[in-house]
């Protein structure tokens, strides 16, 4: 009796397992079927006959329940109808597409997975602000973000990998969090702020985390930038700790300034950096067009961006009129070791001391390297032009 009972139990157990396995198999198969068409078959280079039959199979699998419209696109024509499209004016790599389907630029708008696409956004942000942050600056960034209205997309680059701790802030839900450990601001900017990806934004703020924003309001700042036609700008800096350039110091008596006087001998030309056409890299603000140019100048390996500030003037014309400092919306530079805290304990030094020294050395080397590359590029261009 016992054995019969047990084997009966075993049988029903087996059949349950069989049913379960079958269902699992069906689900698995379904997902493979759904995901496969997204694989670019042309890249796999299957024989064309096979591609055609696969194509047909997928088309049938994914055919919607409503009948197809009588106007056929080339997709429905089979291999015979595969288009002879070649539009040389299309973006590079997309020449075989009809221009009407090409979307060469994007945005960082967060969308819903359901409903009507045109109802996804309650407000369409026109500006972008990015901060490179570690959790230790949480309170400072919270204060800063609150100075940026709903018209801004907020983008945080986390250099310490700690993102979930930001969830306590309401605004964090609508922010975009990019987490890559121990990288510098310009490393992120080069990789995640491609001009085509941020093309929706009129102005792009690329800011450090250690800025005091008590006397700053982003909407008012934008108004001033527009009023004075600034393509590249920064807020005036306080306090004067002796390390600040004359150009970027806040002036109490005006809204905006575009030039300054430095110590004798510093400026060969009053229209050139550091007397004009110059902002620092800690809190720059770019117009869409200026960023498109500046992005191209960021070198992939020179991650600290040193020297870049002196070269930004090449992106706008005339630079001494379109680069400036906004005095009436100003910030405080608090100078906190940030990335430095990410080091390892070595030689009895505090972790940040060791890293700080190495970072300083690298900054200086990168500055020299950038100058050399720029000079080399100028000379190569001019030599070629001279010949041609
Ligand atoms: C097919 O498309 C053309 C042009 O887009 C349009 O004029 C025509 O009415 C369409 N025909 C049908 C049956 O939808
Ligand atoms: C956002 O932009 C719109 C349009 O420019 C403006 O009317 C509105 O005041 C802005 N929002 C804030 C909070 O400033």
Automatic annotation (TrEMBL):
<dbReference type="InterPro" id="IPR007877">
    <property type="entry name" value="DUF707"/>
</dbReference>
<keyword id="KW-1133">Transmembrane helix</keyword>
<keyword id="KW-0472">Membrane</keyword>
<feature type="transmembrane region" description="Helical">
    <location>
        <begin position="18"/>
        <end position="39"/>
    </location>
</feature>
<protein>
    <recommendedName>
        <fullName>Lysine ketoglutarate reductase trans-splicing protein</fullName>
    </recommendedName>
</protein>
<keyword id="KW-0812">Transmembrane</keyword>
<dbReference type="Pfam" id="PF05212">
    <property type="entry name" value="DUF707"/>
</dbReference>
<feature type="region of interest" description="Disordered">
    <location>
        <begin position="62"/>
        <end position="92"/>
    </location>
</feature>
